[in-house]
Amino acid sequence: MTDQTLSPAERYAASRDRARQPLLETFREGLRFDLDPFQREACAALERGRSVLVAAPTGAGKTIVAEFAVFLAMREANAKVFYTTPMKALSNQKFQEFVEAYGPESVGLLTGDTNINSHARIVVMTTEVLRNMLYADSDLLTDLAYVVMDEVHYLADRFRGAVWEEVIIHLPSEVRMVSLSATVSNAEEFGDWLQAVRGDTDVVVSEERPVPLEQHILMRSKLIDLFDSSGLAATNRVNPELVQMARYGGRVLSSRQMRDVGRYHSKGGRPDGFRMNRADLVALLGDRNLLPAIFFIFSRNGCDQAVRQVLRAGVRLTEKHERDEIREIVEDRCRTLLDEDLAVLGYWEWLEGLERGVAAHHAGLLPAFKEVVEELFRRKLVKVVFATETLALGINMPARTVVLEKLEKFNGEARVPITPGEYTQLTGRAGRRGIDVEGHSVIQWEDGLDPQSVASLASRRSYPLNSSFRPTYNMAVNLIDQFGRTRTREILESSFAQFQADRAVVDLARKAMQQEQSLAGYEEAMTCHLGDFKEYFSIRRELTDLERKGSRIESASNGERETRQRQLAALRKRMKDHPCHRCTEREQHARWAERWWKLKRDTDRLRAQIQSRTGAVAKVFDRVSEVLLELGYLAKEDGETALTVHGRTLKRIYGERDLLVAECLRRNVWKDLDAPGLAAMACALVFEPRRDEGLANERTLPRGAFRPALERTIELWSRLDDLEQDNRLPGSEPPSTAISLAMWMWSRGQGLDAVLSEADMAAGDFVRWTKQTIDLLDQLSLVAQGNVGRVARQALESIRRGIVAYSSVA
Question: Which residues form the Helicase C-terminal domain (predicted)?
């Protein structure tokens, strides 16, 4: 909206806003488009010095708020901004964008396996990296002004979500936070928690999609609107034509056929469920001008098979000049790949698909291949992508149309319906801002689908954000070392998990911590150079209380009066004999002591309330602490809990198996391993097997020192698991050696073909597990003493080669 289209009053209000927000106005002038109301509101809050939580649909432009935070930081001398993401791919993408905007000297990147310009003023990183920095009190935190937490709804992730809460709780209070979330139904509750633990925080919620979404059902060969578009129906009423077609197998019946409905059903029910094949559907979308499209298929193999299917059918969606450009980009991005690896990676088949405008996108793809697919799709050179749901998370890859072949997926245990939140996330990719007037979603019909259920799924735009926070061993030792066990318990009471369980405890804990800070100030103000004024004041309080008590008791016996008089005389003598009684500033100290005493009484009352309401999070922390005490990672000293030398080692080990790694180092379990053996062992600790994987047959394990070391590692895991069960902790799965031999072969320099064959997995999966193995080996190289540390570094270098070493960022 331009100034010319506004009324005089609106123009005056806009002028006043610009005067109040000069930095926002400067930022806005540098954009090629105007800001939406929610973007302006969030940016204005940042300029006022507040933190913000922005909840808006996928593609709505939330990152503009983050870019304004970067803009503000770059205008302050030495101020830094950290941009955190849940995924390395998203980190790489944001890194490239900021490099283009601010130059390579101003931007850094920190992920588990990449360290570029870490002292820059703008640093993009995965959230785990920032958590580790906070626990290590890294000097990189100096001058930190803003932290952007992109995809903050990842906090609900049951495996990694706790990291987001750790960062939010432990960031220095002066750092302003920009939290970007998908539309969640309890954004206000999450905002209230942020307000409780971080202070001034504005919640900005937008439920409007930037590009409207038209939703269709593909029944047989016909695209039918999901919702009634007659204009006469209430909003979100299911299209009556769809209901009729669903009832009669995808056909609209004539009046005569409707009269024969009874006979129709009596002769065997529903007709066969015709389903359009993918090549014909691609052609249909092309004819309707609905490309580019993303087909979401909840299976990697399904994605690869879909590409092969449409290629066999002769689908070609590109012109010659596009094919030339595609080949040029592919050759440039993949130039570092070894020629002998290309066939193993399926390079030529992949390239043929790209040149015809078709590709797959899933976690099994080599990262280099995924990045190329994303780039070609953004450049409108690839027109159809068959993808798993991971594409919907964060990566900037919008399409005109999203196709859902099924509304259920395998969750690792069973086939389950997708949730309204997942549906919103997937269809959020439909509609490109500034390109499309509207986005489209297409659901392929299959027998058994209920139009009303589909409509319910599609009309619920948001889902609740629930905490997955739980204390870990590493978290416990880091917090106890920094704050002590009692204060750590209070900090954990401030978690979103506890907030959701009992909102009152968070407010009480925050108030108690604030009052304890005031108590420390009062205590300092009443300090006397002649002696312990707290002790002196307690005598005065006791004397005052006894005098008041005596004045209220009139019917006391002579004996009672004499006893009280002796007590009063003794107290008066103790008070006069105390060195602080002679202090010239005694009454000034006493006024501060009176304030301290009253606040201490109130704080103790708060503490008692918190103790009585202690939640599940603190109880889990107590159990974790008991395990650590029993194993000697914590010890009691003068009534306080402190870290032992082993606890200091555990402080620096991050990951699901932190305690098992620490135990193995402590007991020298891995001292005889060579580099390939240690790589195989680290792989066994990080690898998460599918249901049909786990411990490999002994004949397929690396020979030599690896086998006895593995036996001792499994034995230690078993003892830890028993101890955890005894302390009512959930325990863990045993280490899995399913791909340890493949990692051992890779470390020894064997070829990719043989290694992938042994691992029986896709190249992208092998790269992902190798990078996680590298992350653990890197930690071991820094933490382990003597030979194990040196071998860990050798092992790391031996597996960081070939397709694993490839990085488009580097």
Answer: 309-481
